[in-house]
Amino acid sequence: MLRSYEGVRFLSDKQMVIFDIGNAYTKYGYAGETTPRGIIRTEVVCSETKELRNIYDYKNTEDLYQLLVDFLHSLFLGYIVMSPKDARIVVLESPLTPSQFRDTLAKVMFLHFEISCLMLLPTHLATISTLGTNTALVLDVGYKEATLIPIYEGVPILKAWQALPLGGKIVHEYLMKSLKSTTLNADITEKLVEDIKVRTCFVTTLERSAKLGTAEAPNPPPAVMYPGVKNIVIPGEVREKAFEALWERDNDNLSIPTMILDAIIQCPMDIRRSLAKNIMLIGGTTMIKGFASRLKSELLALVKSNLYSEKLKIQTFKFHTAPSKPNYTAWLGGSIFGTTDLPLRYITQENYVKSNRIPDWANLIDNQKEDSVTYD
DSSP letter at 269? Predict the structure, then answer.
């Protein structure tokens, strides 16, 4: 028994802990490892109300602070099994992370848990480190939104970034509505819908999608039985249409495929082909069967359409295959960064207490050369 605890202590003293806190799931583990130690839902039983809540569903800063305290306490002591004091932490962050969230997270880490240092690492930058390349167009389709940032020679092209509220949540809402109307079962929960989505649904082809809802509609795939407390029949039409919302263009003519093309157009002409041949998909939603194939078909069709034929002279798109599952590729990138010595990117507890702020990687003030920065 003593050896077990000594092993945990040795691991926590020598290695950096990696957190990827997503809207739906959180990945955690140690730097240098190829897979997370675990993946858990980003929710916690609030110590005040005793309700199970997602930490992103906060009401104000004070509410967020308490949710983060409860959530990180369970992470450190229930999963990582280490004392947070003097720990070194890497947190993956999305470019859409609100300043309120990242500031409160740093405050909880440094002042409540008293960690020794923190690195806030952009998800898209961490991702390309898993490929051994410095150029990629990284599309992250998660639970609430899809975000995209082109990266050339290790530098994010921020003027070309794209984001849309398209992700797993829209698929869940469609399934919830469809199953409740077809099964007359009121016990359709979020967790059940997610399992049904993963096990039974798929992304249909572009050719079949164009005919859905028309007089030439093809025969739907077979219905399947989802076993559970109560057997639920998943109609073939529902299985096939679940992910169609990701490809339908909105009033501004935007969808996930147009995000990629619009981002490429906003980049310099001499790097557009390199980006088109280095597309990387991450996020749990991209793991669904048929996603990459449909995305490629959509891109090839769009570049020939009136919308893009004159703007973009690219006919080839290639996708990278990461050395991990798309839902934790960003975490793997953080694991790689955690093994390197990057003191300039660490925020120490001492510096945080002095400045009472954390640097913002997208802020020019925090990206100046040392000789151009003056200190009082």
Answer: G
Contact 360, 317 (CB under 8 A): no
What is the residue type of 87?
Answer: A
Q: Kindly report, residue by residue over 34-45, the tens digit of the pLDDT.
A: 999 999 999 999
Residue with tokens 């990284």: 138
Separation between Cα atoms, residue 361 and residue 13, nearest integer Å: 28
Query: CA 303: distance to chain centroid?
Result: 27
What confidence tens digit (pLDDT) does each residue in 220-246 have? 999 999 877 677 889 999 999 999 999
Count helices and strands in the chain by DSSP H and E runs: 13, 15
Q: Helices in 42-167 by DSSP H: which ranges?
A: 61-74, 99-107, 123-128
- CA 36 to CA 27: how far, in whole Å? 6
Helix, strand or coil, per DSSP, at residue 2: helix
Q: Long-range contact list for 320-326, CB < 8 A, 24+ apart?
A: 320/131, 320/133, 320/136, 320/278, 320/279, 320/280, 322/127, 322/130, 322/131, 322/280, 322/282, 323/34, 323/130, 324/34, 324/35, 324/130, 325/287, 326/281, 326/282, 326/283, 326/284, 326/286, 326/287
Contacts of 88 (CB under 8 A, 6+ apart): 16, 17, 115, 116, 117, 118, 346
Residue type, 168: G
The conformational region for residue 29 under phi > 0 = left, psi -120 to 50 = alpha, else beta, is left
As a whole number of angstroms, the distance between CA 186 and CA 179 comes to 9
Q: Under a CB-based contact definition with an 8 Å cutoff, are residues 168 and 143 in contact?
A: yes
Q: Is 175 exposed, middle or buried (0-12, 13-18, 19+ CB in 10 A)?
A: buried
pLDDT the model gives residue 342: 63
Residue 231's identity, in one-letter code, is N
Tokens 């991990």 belong to residue: 324
pTM over 0.70: yes
Query: 345 with 89: CB under 8 angstroms?
Result: no
Tokens 């039974």, residue located: 200
Helical pair 256-265 and 291-302, crossing angle rounded to 10 deg? 50
Rounded CA-CA distance 109/348 in Å is 11
Residue 62 CB burial class (10 angstroms; 0-12, 13-18, ≥19):
exposed
